[in-house]
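Forgive a beginner's question, but would it be possible to get any protein sequence you like and the tokens describing how it folds?
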Amino acid sequence: MATFRYPNEQDHLPLILLVPGGPLRDGHWMKRWAQWSEHCRVLELGMWDEPHRNTWVNKLNLAIRRADRPVVIVTDDIAALALAWWVEFESVGAENPVLGAITVNPPNMDLPGADPRLSRFGACPRQPLPFTSFVVSDLDASVAQQRSVIRLAKDWGASPVCDDTRGDWASGWMMLQTVLGLVPAGAMTPRWTQDENLAVREALRQWAGI
């Protein structure tokens, strides 16, 4: 188990690691965020079509260690698995350099055959993440994908969010400020879905234990 300590942690502005699950196209919100702040850094894991789990985890681990300051991790697509396996392999506990994480549009872990890339990672770790986290699904995602996100968020101890992640994704930037502690958590009220889909509402009810 790795132990991370910083002599003057309160003096360090956190590094925001932006970890895409594929090549970033022009106009992607991660590219915009990297331009907005010098404290945002894009970490490209490579091998997009045939990802290698241990290589991705090692690249993420190296980036976290080299940061030499607290880190917030923001993943897109299948890069969420690199984060989950980093927590698993490093036996990450409460004392770790990661302040929080936002995982956006993770693949449907309940249907591994639907995405051939998932077979390269094995079963997704489901233990709670030891830091503040959000799991975000796009508004246009299918009901099956939304329900998968709800289950994943419950297992990870994360907050499930559904949002429009197109363009700059300004509301995601506000979510990031919440993770950083720059705005009160109550200042952000994430919505789940625009419609009244009964299956999603039922999944949310079960997730909340009502």
In short: The radius of gyration is 16 Å.
